[in-house]
Predict the 3D structure of the following.
Amino acid sequence: MAMAMRRAANGFLFISKMQRNKLGRFDLSRVILRHFSDQRDRSFMNPSDFEKWDNGGGLFHRTASIDPTAVIEIGAVVHPNSVLGVDVHIGSGTIVGPSVFVGNSTKVGYNAALSNCSVGMYCIFHHGVRIGQDGFGFYVDDKGHVLKKPQELCVRIGDHVEVGANTCIDRGSWRDTTIGDHTKIDNLVQIGHNVVIGKCCMLCGQVGIAGSVTMGDYVVMGGKSGVKDHVSVASKVRVATNSGVIKDITEPGDYGSNP
């Protein structure tokens, strides 16, 4: 219970003061208490609890808190206890999972999936984005079986973040996966669990960031470059295309390797 309340509090703290002021009409206490609700709750969803949203024709659960200005296009579904702020736009085929928070003026394209996450204001998510699914965490037991490690935390995305088509950002296992304000992420990028990326970073196409990486502000990653797990990258670092970062970078500058 204590763990659940801590996660709920973290989710609430992520809502900026501006968002809280504009969301006064919502029952935030209910959102906090149900934030990142137990997986078992999904099995009790009744199809009759979903209704058609007049502004776009999509479906929403009656426990969701949705601003009247939000658009939910036909074929999109908003699940229980989620919050959509002012002028949010959800494209056709997109799923907004239980207890997801989407900030004001954020636009989500077609066939995206948002789960276990909080999203800031003025973000753009292109078609096919996947946010908040389990990270790649396993261990081998004494019998040689490969077993899954729990992936129970969330993704926290700041304001003015843009995420390209078919990019995946995994939920955390020991800390939240975090994307800072004004960071821009290209198509087909993989961001592993527990990754923390600072503000105003740019990740080009097919970049791979392995689990538990910590990245500073104003970092630029060239196309097809990658960062090894548990590595730290200082602010104002630029990594060349096709490079592999396998140890900490502690000073700003330009770096490249082959591979």
Q: What stands out?
A: The two ends are 46 Å apart (CA to CA). The chain is about 10% helix and 30% strand. Residues 135 and 147 are 13 Å apart (CA to CA). The chain has a mean pLDDT of 88.
